[in-house]
Fold each of these.
Amino acid sequence: MTEPTIVVLADPEACALAAAERIVEILDVAIDDHAEAHWVTTGGSAPAAIYHHLATSPLREELDWRKVQLWWTDERFVPTDHPLSNAKIANDILLNVAHRSGQSGTGGLGGDVVTGRSSGVLIPSDQVHPIETAVAIGGGHDETWAAHHYAEVIQADGPDTNDDGWPAFDLMLLGLGSDGHILSAFPGSPAFDAPDWVIGVPAPTHIEPHVPRVTLNPALVVAAHELIVVSHGASKAEILQAILKGERDERQLPAQLARRPGATWFVDRAAARLL
Ligand code: 6PG
């Protein structure tokens, strides 16, 4: 079999729940196998609803989050508290940092003052590895500096490398760009020829937001043990058809790197219309 598993569900909410359940399953198997799980997550519109499910009962209790190492596939070159930041979505919803610090107005222990329930998964902070854009910006460095820095962090704390020397994450979560990109590897990206694990990307002009990025090398999509791709909405129908049913041309349609065994695509009916 050379094709991924494609799961078509009613709507974006159903995709988010199914993706969240699958994330827990994959991370749990990895923890059973080698005592920790390296999850590299993504940005864009897909993660927020997924994080919400992971951060609340029952999924929150179904995994030993203390064994998870959290990474990012790519980041916009903005500070980590900027609305465009991919790390911010996880800080706000998945980790619920404000809640845990007792500074959110929800009570000193971070629980809801009315129900007593708390939310946010308890990944130790030294196992959360955002791409350090704020450090780069504060130090007057550019996106390439941030990329080199992140490669060093992966080298130090990341997963083992495969036979080709690429770090092999247990799970990579991906969204699909309207031009067929994944990570911040856009069609025709020079990242395909780069030897570096992480690469600085000039601000794209053809797709928003127009800010520089930092991205993992596309080779890491191939190296990852399991992939989950989430895509929804009628506007993704044509590109999804090209990626999953069209001729393979990964340099022009980078998301085709995720058209492989070990990948599960959760798509809603609107996006799946042409499949
Ligand atoms: C980013 C990404 C990117 C994203 C796709 C899909 O920072 O933008 O990580 O690869 O996943 O662009 O984004 P949407 O889900 O918002 O269409």
Amino acid sequence: MPVLCSSCSEKRAVLKRPKTGHSLCKACFFWAFEEEVHQTIVAAKLFRSGETVGIAASGGKDSTVLAHVMKLLNERHGYGLELMLISVDEGITGYRDDSLETVKRNQQQYELPLKIVSYEELYGWTMDAIVKQVGLKNNCTFCGVFRRQALDRGAIMLKVDKICTGHNADDVAETVLMNILRGDIARLRRCTAISTASEGDGVVPRCKPLKYAYEKEIVLYAYFKKLDYFSTECIYSPNAYRGYARTFLKDLESIRPSSIMDIIHSGENLSVREGVKMPVQGTCSRCGYISSQALCKSCVLLEGLNRGLPKLGIGKHHRLHGKILSQQPLTEHEQRKLKSVDF
Ligand code: SF4
Ligand code: ZN
């Protein structure tokens, strides 16, 4: 006997919602998924009418679904937003060049303006060149730090008021777990926030409209809507630590699907005891970007690359910032320590 959709009771159910276990037809699933994102946007007051919003687009499933749903909800509910796509080209041959082709097709399909900012143009280094120098161990640290700043730079060039990213519920839960495992209280407190206010000049406020959307549902949505997305993994993705957190989360989800939401709620309700020392945000004295040290992470990583000392930005070498800023030479011992790529 075919199962009927538990929402409309008319059409045949084609899927079981991973988030709720309900059997739904295609149309009812689309509606439920889209309206939940709408509820998230409304409840957290993510946007104001008249704003220009940049959608961080990588060509992957999350950002493709985000672009599709943002365009649809903007029209359906009259948000009054001007939407644009911003992409970062990390310079990864065989991966990003192909996924950017997907973004370019999305731009045509959704009729949205697109801005691509590249690491090469911003930093003088592609990820291909960085991996050649640092190997495959800490490459994602460079990539993550550079991407954050690159998106801000792209957003400023496009004069957008806000950036929205495709982070989904699984990503947020995974980050909560990782920050707990690392004891990173400052990040733990920030990572569940659905939006961040501008933390200073050059930092554009960000938000995550898909924060409560399960990855499995995003995949189903993209599949049933036949969205055009790129599903290959980055060729430099050894980020083992996140991988373990992800596997752990998926195991938990298979036993109890609500685990994802429960971890997010736990993260949201944690409070930091008074008196715990938190980093104080200032600005980088070289590029002006936010930083809790004399130099921002991006400038230190870049300095390390340019000096052939890749370890400079990995780990805690804050005491060297003054020397870098005043262009003082490092001692032989310091150089030796920073030269090894065996992080
Ligand atoms: Fe960059 Fe690492 Fe992601 Fe690849 S896996 S795009 S190197 S952060
Ligand atoms: Zn800087």
